[in-house]
Design goal:
The chain is of the alpha+beta class. It is built from 3 helices and 5 strands. It has one domain. The protein has helices spanning about 1-10, 10-15, 35-40, and strands at about 25, 30-35, 55-60, 70-75, 85-90.
Amino acid sequence: MKDFIDWCGYADFIRGNEHGLDSDVTSIPIASPMPKEVADEGGGCPNCKCKEIMLIKVEVEQQLLKGKKGTGTYVGCPACPWASPMMMVPRG
C-alpha cells in the first residue's frame, strides 16, 4: 500500500500540509463527515464555502509526542486543499 501512496504522490501532498511541524504520517487518513450542526456553526470551508467539512484522523510519528507515536486529528474540505492545523495526541 505504501508504494501505491508514494506512486500517486499522496505522501508528498501530506508532507506539504504540515503547517511547519516535521512529522511522519504512518497511515492512510480516515475521513468522516462532521456533524451537520458543527459544520453549519462554523460556516463551512473558509476557502471555498463548501458546507461539507470532514474530520480526518491519521497515525503519526513525532519526536515531541510521548512515546514518539500518536494520532493526529484535523478538519479539512473535500472540495479544495484547505485543512486546519493538526492536533496530535500520544497513544495511550
